[in-house]
Amino acid sequence: MCKAIMKPLLRLSPAQVPLLIIAANLSIMMTLSMTILPRVHMIMMMAGSRNHRLGYEVVGSAYDVALNRSAQLYPKVFGNYSVTRYFTPGTFTCADANAITTVGLSTLYADDSFNAFAVNSKEIRIVLSPGCSFETVTLGDFAREENVLVLASTASLDLLNNKKRFPTLLPLASTSYNNVGLALLKLLRLYKWNAFNLVCDSNAKDPQRLAMEVSCGVLRDTFKDVRDISMLALPFDSSNNDSAGAMLRLAKTHSSVSIIASLPEIYKHILVAAYTLGMANGDYVFYLLPLTAFEQFEEMPWNREKVPTNLLRILPFAFVLAFDEIKWDAVTGEVEQMRNRSRQAYNWTISEEYKHNVLQLAAYESLLMLVEVLNDTIGDAGEETGVKLASRFFNRTFNLPSRRVELNKIGTRECSVFVKQFNNVTRRFLTVQYLDSASQRLMADNTTSEVKWFTQTFPPSVVPHCGFNGELCSKREGNSSLLAEVLSVIAVICLLITFACWKYTASRRYLDLWWLLANEKMGTVRKEQGGRSYWQLETPPTCSFPRRNTKSTVLSVGTMRAEDKRRLSMDLTLSAEWRNLRSL
Q1: Of the residues 130, 251, 310, 569, which has the fewest C-beta atoms closer than 10 A?
Q2: Rounded CA gap, 564 and 546, in Å?
Q3: d(Cα 39, Cα 11) in Å, to the nearest integer?
Q4: C-beta of residue 263 within 8 angstroms of C-beta of residue 208
Q5: Which run of H or E residues covers position 418?
Q6: Distance of CA 14 to the CA centre of its chain
Q7: Please, are residues 523 and 538 in contact by the beta-carbon 8 Å criterion?
């Protein structure tokens, strides 16, 4: 076989040999070019630092650990890849971060070295961002023009689901405040509450104020076009100790339902103040939003710490909203790796208190999902554009160690919202309702628990029992006093009338029955007393005898017992009547 092949080669002329070698080299190069995978270029963009919640030290370490983990799971993807980190240190508002992102994108794409490789070879670019909603909007508009995929792990603005405007953007936030707003709207309509108070903590010194601003902004946007429900935004600053009482007194004048956006420790302070103001009587309802990136209100150690009695008494009247449960035990190793990476690479220490960060975990999960999709699709025929790559996430489920993640038909992360009520027996918050993200329906969760209300039936009226200013109770108390007085007078009158009737009936009980007495049973005796003569009727002890009213001549029959002899005295002027009586 080899001889058959070599024989023609030996017959080639010297001029033909170089041509054959060139042709063979070209064939080998073409084969190799068909098997070489395109380069994966990940661009991490973050603005802000020295923040336990969402600084680039925190999120950057999450991306780094996810890269290491993905390289172990899917080595094919990392045969040819690069990472660009565009981190901007400082403390910024969402508007500031938006401007920084715009400048950053312009700077990157103006850099020749950044574009050099993409010009001469196939490259898949993906932007990873934990930025706020406004920042993500800017990224989404840019990505549409450049046909680049953007994975947003924090932003959840409903506008981002517009696929006509953002065809290459995937909102993968695990904390959807749009769904929180939808859940609250459905709760208000379910219970026929046509008014509520929106309390937003405006503490400018709180490092998590951005979450409060975003959540309250989403809620205002949710209810701005709702005509049948009145919303009153109440001022509240947790840095002022007197602010909670003033806010609650104002809330009592508008609605019995209050939705509060603050942090777990502040919720305690507000509820204690509400108890002091008499709002733990079943007339008032509180809904607490899940704004912290760390330990949520329902996750606090209610079983271990000594909880004040006044707080325990008002907790059953407060509902907390929560997102999908996280299996932190399943990612203990990854959490520790993030803490080590943050300290070693970014000189930032993540304390024990802040190690369970839901935003950091969402960034970690977004990169794991990305690499899983790339592993399944990279090397397919055709160019992998941003639009095409985004479509590969549609209707997909990822079984991650921390939790199960489902994406809907447009690649948005399904994020259900759970409504939980405190149980004083178990000292735990138990799910009573939940908003199913896929169906957008609010459903009861009777398998876990049901709403338990005290002092009255649930739900209470939007108007407190005593009115907004206690005027109904004052009026009722006045009416009750007057009614009591009237009833007392009526009762006395009734007693007098009853007694008079009894007296009258007793006096006439034997009227006209005198003729039943036998003639021999009656006798008269003449008596003298005080110079006055009169006749006295006497009968044997066992006989009935007639009695006479001294004011009339009508005779009645009474009863005489042996131990209680009674005599009837008669005036002398009536003695003739008695004589006639004896002659009957």
Answers
A1: 569
A2: 15
A3: 44
A4: yes
A5: strand 417-423
A6: 86
A7: yes
Cβ-based neighbour number of residue 437 at 10 Å:
22
Helix axes 209-223, 177-190, angle to 10 degrees: 50
At 358, list the tokens.
């839901």
Q: How far is CA 359 from CA 132, 139, 224, in A?
A: 11, 19, 28
Q: Which residues contact 35 (CB under 8 A, 6 or more apart)?
A: none
Residue ranges of alpha helices (H) inside 262-418 are: 264-276, 309-314, 332-346, 358-377, 386-391
Exposure string over 250-263, b if 16+ CB within 10 A, otherwise e: ebbebbbbbbbbbb
Is residue 580 classed as helix, strand or coil in its secondary structure?
helix
Chain segment 236-283, per-residue pLDDT in tens: 999 988 889 999 999 999 999 999 999 999 999 999 999 999 999 999
Helices (H), 130-240: 133-146, 177-190, 209-223
What gap in Å lies between CA 157 and CA 173, rounded to an integer?
Answer: 10
149 forms beta bridges with 126
pLDDT of residue 577: 55
How would you write 106-133 as a 3-class SS string?
HHHHHCHHHHHHHHHCCEEEEEEECCCH
CA distance 548 to 509: 13
> Structure tokens of 176?
């959807």
Cis preceding-peptide flag for 459 (omega within 30 of 0) = yes
Using CA atoms of 161, 164, 168, 172 in order, give the dihedral in degrees to the nearest 10: 0
Round to whole Å and give the CA distance between 256 and 213: 24
Cα angle, residue 376 at apex, residues 171 and 67 outer, rounded to 5° = 65
Measured CA angle at 257 (ends 256, 262), to 5 deg: 130
Tokens of 104: 């950053």
User: Model-level pTM?
Assistant: 0.73
Reported as a single tens digit per residue, the pLDDT across 40-65 is: 999 999 999 988 888 899 999 999 99
Close Cβ partners of 198 (under 8 Å, ≥ 6 residues apart):
216, 219, 220, 231, 232, 233, 234, 259, 261
Strand order in the sheet with 169-171: 81-88, 39-47, 123-129, 149-152, 169-171
Angle at 20 between CA 19 and CA 21, to 5 degrees: 90
Model confidence over 387-397: pLDDT tens digits?
A: 999 999 999 99
Token digits of residue 91: 């403390």
What's the pLDDT tens digit per position in 433-474? 999 998 989 998 767 778 888 877 889 998 887 776 766 675
Count the alpha carbons within 13 Å of 427 in the hemisphere toward its beta carbon: 12
The one-character DSSP state at 522 is: -
- The sign one gets for the Cα dihedral 201, 204, 210, 216 is positive
Question: Which residues contact residue 186 at a Cβ distance below 8 angstroms, ignoring those fewer than 6 apart?
Answer: 435, 442
**Cβ pair 239, 203 in contact under 8 A:** yes
89-to-50, 55, 432 alpha-carbon distances in Å: 8, 8, 43
